[in-house]
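re: ur question from the group chat, yeah i did fold both. here u go
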Amino acid sequence: MKMNNRKSPLIKILAIAGTASLAVATSTAQATMLDGIVDQWTVGVSTIFDTTSITDSNGNSPGGVTIINNQSLRWGSDLGSGLSGLDISNSPALGTALTNGPALGNVSITHLNRPITGDTLRSLDILSTLTLTPLVPAAPGLPAQTLSFTVHYAETSNGDNPCADGGANGVGVNVNGCADIYVTDANSLNFSFFYDLDGGVGPLQNQEYFISFFELTNGLKPLSAAACAVAGVATPCLGFETPEQQDTTVQFASLITTEKIHIPEPGSLALAGLGLLGLGLHRRRRG
C-alpha cells in the first residue's frame, strides 16, 4: 500500500479502525475542555478494492481477474481446489478510539491461495475512507477523506526449488509448495492532523494529533530481497507470504496519539496491538 506521510490542515490518512467500547468519566471530559485534547474519537472506515486499478499478470485490466464485488476478487483456472483470491472483511466499520490508548483491530484482508493455472492478479489499489468525530468531549466531525494504497502480488510456481522467495521448497511457509507473495507499504506511522475544540475563537490550542496503522496478527514482515524482486518492488519491502492451499488473514488496526511514535523495525509493528500506554506517550500542548 502506498501512501504519503504529509501534514494536512484536515486529514490525509488511511484508517483501518475497528470496534471497541471505552468509558471515560465526566471528570475526564471536564479536564479535556481545559487542556484542549480530544480524549475519545468515533472512527468510521469503509475499505474497498478499486476495481478500475486491477492489473493481471499479462498487464491487462482486469484481464484474468474476476470481480465478484468491490470487496472480493478471484483469479486463475480451477484445478479442483477452487480459485485464488482476495477478500476484505469487517468493512464498513464503526468504533471508538482513545487518544494515547491501545491500537484497535478492525478491517481484515484474506488471501485464498489455491493451486491454479492461467492469469493471476499482479497489482491493484485499495481505497479506504475515514471519518473522525470527537466523542469526549463531543464536537463536530472532520470531513471524510479517502486515500488510495497500491499493493503488489506475485503468484509463484509451486514446484520451484529454491522458491521465488529464495527459500527451500517443502520447508516453512513453502511446506505445500512455493508460497505466494503480497507486498504492501511500510510507511504507515505518524500521519498528522489538527483539531481545535473551540474552533479557533477561544483559548484552547489547535492540537496536533498523529494516527498510525498497524497489523495485529504478525503476518506483515520484512521480506527477502528475492521476494521483493519477484513482486516487482524495491528492497526493503514489507508484506506477507501465503502458504499454498491455505487461507491467510491479516488484521489491521489504528492508533491515535498526541506524540509521534517510534518503532525501529517494520516487523515490530504488531507490538502496537499490545497497547502503547507503557511507552511513555504523553500529551503535548501546542500554542
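okk and heres the other one u asked abt
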Amino acid sequence: MSSCNLTTTKENPEEARIVFSTYPTMMNAIDNTKNKKGNKLFTPGHFDLIIVDEAHRSIYKKYQAIFDYFDGLIVGLTATPRNDVDKNTYRFFEIENDVPTFAYEYEQAVKEEHLVEYHSIKTTTNFMDRGIKYEELTEEEKEEYENTFTDENDNMPEEIEASAINSWLFNRDTIKQLLELLMKKGLKVEGGDKLRKNHYICQKA
C-alpha cells in the first residue's frame, strides 16, 4: 500500500493509504493539512484503523485529544501496559485491568523462535553479604580498617554489618569488580569492541 511519513516527507498525504506520524506532528497536521480542494484533510473519519505503538506512554492527557478526535478503530501495542490511577492503559481501551485484548507471551515467542531465551549471571561479594569482620582480615586490611574506622576516642568496631555497608559505604573496588564481570561475561558487538545495550546491572544501594 502507498504510505506517507508525515515527519519526513513534504508530499501530500492525501494519496497515502497508510500514514505514519508522531503525536505532535499529527496534532499539527489535524489543524493545518489540507486536501486538493483546500479543505481539512484529516477529518474525524479519515482513518479506518489507528495503530498506537508504545501505547502505555503518551495516550493520556494532552495527546489523548488525538484519539478523542478520530473515530476509527484503535489498536494499542505495548509490552508494559500501565494501570496507574492517572495513566491507565486498560481504562483507555475500555478493558479490565491486567487483562489485555490479546497477549503474546515471552515464553511463546521463545518457543516460536521470534525471541531468544535470556539468562542472568548473579554475583556478589562477601562484604556485601556478610559485612566486614576485623578478625577475618589480612594484616594489611586490618591496618586499613583501623585507620578508617577508629574514632577520635580510639574506639573501633569489631565488625560492620552488611546493612551498614550497603547504606553508607561506597566501595569503589566493588564497582570495579562488577564492571569487570560485565566486560568479561557481557554480550559483545562490533567485533567484541563494544557491549550490547540490552544489559541490566542490579546492585544493592
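fwiw on the second one: The longest helix spans residues 172-185. Strands lie at 3-5, 18-20, 49-52, 73-76, 132-133, 159-160, 188-189, 194-195. idk if thats what u expected
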